[in-house]
Amino acid sequence: MRQFESRQVRAAQDESAERDVNEQIEEASAPEGLAEYGCECPRNCDVPVSLTVDEYEAVRSVPTHFVVAPGHLLVGVEVVVREHSRYTVVEKIGAAAPIASALDPRSPTGPA
Q1: Any domain includes 12
Q2: How far apart are CA 76 and CA 107, in angstroms?
Q3: Do the domain assignments include residue 108?
Q4: What is the pLDDT of residues 49-88, one digit of tens each?
Q5: Which residues does residue 79 pair with via DSSP β-bridges, in sequence order?
Q6: Domain range spanning residue 26?
Q7: In a domain, 110, yes or no
Q8: Is 112 part of a structural domain of the chain?
Q9: C-alpha 5 chain-centroid distance
Q10: What's the 3-state SS for 4-59?
């Protein structure tokens, strides 16, 4: 595997692990108001990202989308889908996209 593809795969795996943590946060959150999710960037950061449950659900409706703190885009692995003052939604590209989909806990073929 080329080094670039390896970087994409590793980033997708790291971000998917953070997404799993955010799934647990969402389950414990009230449906109204803001909840503090973790930035799903692959930098092993601990920056909180504030979203409503509905906003997080919109991100999670696409298995290749992740929520990151503003400025946490990983060029070459993802592209910006939309920006908000509190968060940025990114989409995995290249080799990262199928990994992100496969690791999505909500996917019928993803981890249980």
Answers
A1: yes
A2: 25
A3: no
A4: 999 999 999 999 999 999 999 999 999 889 999 999 999 9
A5: 91
A6: 3-102
A7: no
A8: no
A9: 18
A10: HHHHHHHHHHHHHHHHHHHHHHHHHCCCCCEEEEECCCCCCCCCEEEEEHHHHHHH
